[in-house]
Write a structure and sequence with these properties.
With about 260 residues, the protein is α/β, with parallel strands linked by helices. It contains 9 helices and 7 strands, in the order E-H-E-H-E-H-E-H-E-H-E-H-H-H-H-E. The protein has 2 domains: about 210 residues, NAD(P)-binding Rossmann-like Domain (Rossmann fold); about 35 residues, no CATH class. Strands 3-2-1-4-5-6-7 form a 7-stranded parallel β-sheet, sandwiched between helices. Strand 4, helix 4 and strand 5 form a beta-alpha-beta unit. The relative contact order is 0.15. The structure holds nicotinamide-adenine-dinucleotide.
Length: about 260
Amino acid sequence: MSLKGKTAVITGSNSGIGLGVARELARAGADVVLNSFTDRDEDHALAADLGREFGVNARYIKADMSSGAECRALIEQAGACDILVNNAGIQHVSPIDEFPVDKWDAIIAINMNSTYHTIAAALPMMRKAGWGRVVNVASAHGLTASPYKSAYVAAKHGVVGMTKVVALETAEEPITCNAICPGYVLTPLVEAQIPDTMEKYNMSRDEVVRNVMLSRQPSKDFATVEQIGGTAVFLCSDAAAQITGTTISVDGGWTAL
Ligand code: NAD
């Protein structure tokens, strides 16, 4: 499978799943645009290293996915967007009646609204190019719920719904739109949840990982960023040309329960 000649924009891709997806798309030959809101020297160096490693054109573009205008500017600055991976996301855990309003607004903006803005900006480019792939990184929480994650679950269910609508609006075109729904993947986002959970349940790190995080993941193993990246590459392949408007779970059996 070669994605040579295609340009992929991956939001939130200076770490974790986004970086893993960017690496697999680059390995398949795509030029990649990395993104985050940080704009540090190491973000630009990360892109340069990735480009050298896989022999592709790799750039870093700063854009804050909590701003609709910056989401759209990211796509415009990329200049081409054959493959759009909406991955940027944050998490906050709190009972709904205590959920801080600023956290709620940020999660809905970054995890859901950004997907609307980038898709709206990218679709005209895909139509002009005569080919396009939208891959939204949703979550098992786009299909099921957990307590204390109201904003995240609402946002991810929203992304899954948006995925279906975009697929229907592009159904007769050579464009597909799908969502990947990972279970737990060990990334900085997940690492950051461990200390709070250890304190809340008075558990060791191992107990939190096995009995809390992976309690609903029957494989009892984390998914890897390479597996999420490989799934994205598959969705960009010719074999997936008739796969649109659906979700692919990479969750060790979580949503089979
Ligand atoms: P991560 O914290 O490692 O990465 C999040 C990425 O988003 C980073 O690159 C960060 O820079 C970027 N980001 C955050 N706020 C941003 C903003 N305002 N503007 C631009 N970029 C921003 O987390 P991750 O675990 O790799 O998560 C990536 C995606 O995968 C998220 O959408 C998350 O909800 C989803 N997901 C993760 C898991 C998991 O277990 N790790 C499971 C299911 C879904």
